[in-house]
């Protein structure tokens, strides 16, 4: 009895400790997220202010008079010292306001919500292609290490790394759109399909399915498939090389020999056990690949006239539209942080040790 | 499995090919680079694309004739009269002017539109303020007498032809809906934006089309204005897609997925030249590509050195190679086709002559050459032209260190006088010699603190009081023959003594599908409304 009475507080203490630990962990995550954002805004803001491009000229034009120039400069707050400008910007961001784009005259958030789904749609399909093709190719190369299959896959991966995406995009368009007619050309839709589907997610393929517009879906899909394949090839190249490397490391482990000695089939050993362990590292690689697809699609979006985040950021940067650049950078930062957190959540699913 | 895959691919290809049936019959589809498009407010537009589009949406009070650019024809103003003393202009507006909603457009709207352009004070306001109107006097000087009569009081008796061309044919005189603008006006710190934020995306004015959709970096859609007073546009919709890459535009045009390609480089144009489904339209614009020399530099400040640079430009060679489809060689600062311009031969007297150039820099005191920085845009053919000048300069001992940059950075450096040699462009606002001379030859105040960056002459730190006086006299000369003679004299002087070396007049080249008829392009107007299929 007495023992029971003494034992009773223990779970409470444990729960309290656990709560305290979770609180500390959550606090730590929030602190690091806040710090990351602060760093992100700080670096982007100050870099944006020292680049030799004048945002006032984007508004008033090259031929504007001194009076007009000065008036607009004051209106957009550039007459203030840079730390004051930064402080004002930070306060606005804390209130959920990213300012107005100098170029589009829309709130930056509204612009980002419009352009981001286009990039997301492209990146999802590209990543899908990258994983579905890249992982098996990497495994295949690893189990054929040094043979011609391995050399071929490594060469193809190297090409993916080295070929300028701009050139690859144009060649792809010339071959698959102009010569063979297998896919649709630049843009997200043919003009005859514009404005048919109401915007729900901003991803036309999804929205057309929701609206039950099959024709629009197929048109959007055939517009999407080439740029996504080009981007997918780039991610495939990276994923395949990394998979090969992780698999080579796994295949040299003793447990592989042990499981083979126990009589398990080589297929099971490679594809279930070794690849299963390689997934732990691959999750991070895939998360980072996805992040780089979102921010690095500028050239693909230019060639394919794809109105996404990359094109928006490029145009904003060249016109010194700093609110838009900062907003876009924050969005990419959020995505990276989100992806990191997501990969942290996925670790326990692929690695039982992480569940403890 | 293989059969299912094959069927899926075949079905997909069928769907894909079925969609490749060209553009809709009731739509004119264009591809262009819309990067620089930031507004549709006529009082604010300062770039080529916006001007091109807005002239199909918001008509100015008078217009340039589509066939003869230097001729002024009525537009929303049906007629005009000038008082004997030349100080009052009276415009009679058309009685049947309507906004797209069907509401009548009146002289009161016209007066308000002109006044707000001055109050807003964007770069375009200069089209009005140059003629004596200020924020303080514009409300008194531009007034509506009744619904169709607009009275304009001038401070000086300017030649009416010049005034119509420079001010009333500019997009700044488009008639906007005063009621809409007042209703949508945003007040910040007690100051109104006169509907600028609203008109930026949706200008409510009088013209053959209206803007129905604009998504930056994506698309602009115009719909026919059925309440337009003139001949209705033949094609109901104009869709302008943002395609920032020349190769992609060419493929879209060849496949029939667009009707007009607006941004094509020389290689793509040469390829399209052989395509029977496409025809290429060109017009020589009133814009320039030119070199500007910093007059504060002890070497470049010498006229002999600047003259030497003019002999380093192979005008003929450039015209046949790099400038093909892109520019027409010309050394005079007034574009051919403008009122008061030197003729073709007199406007381009220079030839590549390295010996002459060497002799000139030797005479200037630099027989061993010198080294200078040369800034240039990284866009289009600019770097190729810069390399051409650099290579020729090197042959006479001048080392030019090229620095390529984005246009926005180039403009910033130019306006801050931060350059030795600058290669840049400039577009004349109207087809009269005054347009270029008033900015490139005239410099009202050369002091640094004057910051007159809207004057390329100031950017080059160059001033000549005699030229200032001669330009003003020419501006006020009401005898056309005498005005032409005065402008010829200024051009001749500037061609040898000015701070710029003009390289070429720009050419607007457009590739159009054969099925598109009557797509009219001129230096100041591209008329979408006349086009038909």
- Please name the fourth-level CATH homologous superfamily of the largest domain in chain A: MetI-like
Alpha-carbon Rg of chain A, integer:
26 Å
Give start-end ranges of low-pLDDT stretches of chain A: 1-8
Low-confidence stretches of chain B: 1-20
What is the CATH C-level name of the largest domain in chain A?
Mainly Alpha
From the spread of the alpha carbons, the general shape of chain A counts as globular
How many domain regions of chain A?
2
Helical percent range of chain B?
Answer: 25-40%
Counted by DSSP, the helix tally of chain A is: 15
Strand tally of chain B is 21
Mean pLDDT of chain B: 92
Beta strand count of chain A: 0
Helical fraction of chain A equals over 70%
Biggest protein-protein contact in the assembly = A-B, 60 and 64 residues
Task: Please give the alpha-carbon distance between the first and last residues of chain A.
Answer: 32 Å
Task: Kindly report the oligomeric state of this protein.
Answer: heterodimer
Average pLDDT of chain A works out at: 85
| Element-level helix/strand string of chain A | HHHHHHHHHHHHHHH
In terms of structural class, how would the helical and strand content of chain B be classed?
alpha+beta
Main sheet specs of chain B: 11 strands, mixed
């Amino acid at each position: 009895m007495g023992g029971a009475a003494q034992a009773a507080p223990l779970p409470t203490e444990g729960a309290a400790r656990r709560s305290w630990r979770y609180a500390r962990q959550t606090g730590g995550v929030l602190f690091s997220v806040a710090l990351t954002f602060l760093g992100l805004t700080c670096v982007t803001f100050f870099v944006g202010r020292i680049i030799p491009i004048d945002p006032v000229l984007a508004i008033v034009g090259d031929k504007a008079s001194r009076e007009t120039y000065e008036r607009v400069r004051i209106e957009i707050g550039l007459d203030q010292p840079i730390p004051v400008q930064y402080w004002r910007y930070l306060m606005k961001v804390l209130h959920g306001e990213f300012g107005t784009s100098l170029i589009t005259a829309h709130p930056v958030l509204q612009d980002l919500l419009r352009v981001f789904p286009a990039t997301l749609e492209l990146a999802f399909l590209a990543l899908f292609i990258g994983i579905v093709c890249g992982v098996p190719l990497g495994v295949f190369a690893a189990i054929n290490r040094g043979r011609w299959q391995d050399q071929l896959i490594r060469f193809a991966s190297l090409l993916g790394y080295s070929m300028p995406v701009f050139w690859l995009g144009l060649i792809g368009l010339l071959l698959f759109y102009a010569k063979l007619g297998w896919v649709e050309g630049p843009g997200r839709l043919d003009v005859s399909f514009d404005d048919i589907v109401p915007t729900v997610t901003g991803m036309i393929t999804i929205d057309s399915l929701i609206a039950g517009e099959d024709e629009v879906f197929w048109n959007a899909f055939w517009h999407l498939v080439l740029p996504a394949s080009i981007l997918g090839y780039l991610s495939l190249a990276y994923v395949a090389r990394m998979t090969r490397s992780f698999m080579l490391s796994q295949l040299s482990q003793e447990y592989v020999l042990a499981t083979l000695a126990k009589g398990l089939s080589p297929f099971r050993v490679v594809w279930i056990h070794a690849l299963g362990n390689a997934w732990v590292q691959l999750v991070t690689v895939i998360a980072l690949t996805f992040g780089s697809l979102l921010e690095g699609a500028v050239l693909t979006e230019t060639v394919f006239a794809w109105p996404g985040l990359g094109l928006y950021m490029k145009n904003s940067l060249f016109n010194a539209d700093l609110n838009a650049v900062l907003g876009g950078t924050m969005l990419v930062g959020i995505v990276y942080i989100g992806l990191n957190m997501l990969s942290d959540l996925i670790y326990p699913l692929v690695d039982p040790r992480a569940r403890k | 499995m293989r059969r299912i895959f094959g069927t899926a691919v075949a079905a997909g290809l069928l769907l894909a090919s079925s969609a490749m049936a060209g553009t809709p019959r009731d739509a004119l589809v264009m591809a262009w680079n819309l990067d620089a498009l930031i507004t549709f407010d006529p009082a604010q537009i300062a770039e080529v694309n916006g001007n091109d589009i807005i002239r199909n949406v918001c008509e100015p009070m008078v217009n340039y004739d589509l066939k003869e650019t230097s001729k002024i024809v009525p537009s929303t103003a049906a007629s005009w009269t000038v008082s004997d003393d030349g100080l009052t202009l009276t415009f009679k507006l058309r009685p049947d002017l309507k906004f797209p909603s069907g509401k009548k457009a009146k002289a009161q709207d016209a007066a308000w539109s002109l006044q707000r352009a001055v109050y807003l004070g964007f770069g375009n306001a200069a089209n009005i303020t140059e003629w004596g109107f200020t924020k303080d006097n514009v409300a008194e000087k531009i007034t509506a007498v009744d619904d169709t009569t607009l009275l304009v009081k001038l401070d000086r008796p300017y030649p009416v032809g010049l005034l119509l061309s420079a001010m009333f044919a500019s997009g700044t005189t488009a008639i906007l809906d005063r009621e809409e603008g007042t209703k949508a006006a945003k007040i910040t710190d007690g100051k109104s934006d006169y509907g600028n934020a609203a008109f930026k995306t949706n200008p409510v004015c009088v013209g053959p089309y209206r803007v129905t959709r604009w998504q930056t970096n994506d698309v602009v859609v115009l719909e026919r204005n059925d309440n337009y007073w003139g001949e209705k546009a033949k094609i109901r919709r104009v869709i302008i897609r943002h395609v920032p890459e020349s190769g992609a535009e060419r493929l879209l045009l060849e496949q029939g997925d667009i009707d007009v390609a607006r941004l094509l480089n020389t290689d793509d144009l040469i390829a399209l030249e052989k395509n029977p489904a496409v025809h290429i339209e060109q017009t020589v614009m009133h814009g320039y590509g030119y070199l500007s020399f910093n007059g504060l530099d002890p070497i470049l400040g010498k006229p002999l050195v600047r003259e030497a640079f003019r002999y380093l430009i192979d005008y003929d060679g450039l015209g046949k190679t790099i400038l093909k489809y892109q520019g027409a060689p010309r050394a005079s600062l007034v574009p051919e086709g403008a009122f008061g311009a030197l003729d073709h031969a007199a406007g381009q007297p220079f030839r590549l002559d390295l010996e002459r150039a060497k002799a000139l820099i030797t005479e200037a005191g630099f027989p061993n050459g010198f080294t200078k920085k040369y800034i240039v845009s990284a866009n289009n053919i600019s770097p190729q032209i810069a390399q051409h000048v650099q290579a020729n300069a090197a042959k006479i001992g001048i080392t030019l260190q090229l620095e390529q940059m984005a246009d926005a950075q180039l403009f910033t450096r130019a306006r801050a006088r931060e350059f030795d040699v600058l290669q840049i462009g400039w577009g004349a606002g109207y087809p009269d010699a005054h347009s270029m001379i008033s900015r490139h030859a005239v410099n009202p105040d050369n002091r640094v603190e004057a910051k007159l960056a809207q004057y390329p002459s100031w950017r080059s730190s160059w001033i000549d009081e005699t030229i200032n006086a001669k330009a003003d006299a020419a501006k006020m000369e009401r005898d056309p023959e005498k005005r032409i003679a005065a402008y010829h004299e200024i051009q001749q002087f500037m061609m040898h003594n000015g701070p710029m070396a003009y390289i070429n007049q720009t050419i607007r080249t457009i590739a159009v599908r054969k099925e598109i008829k009557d797509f009219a392009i001129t230096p100041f107007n591209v008329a979408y409304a006349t086009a038909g299929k």
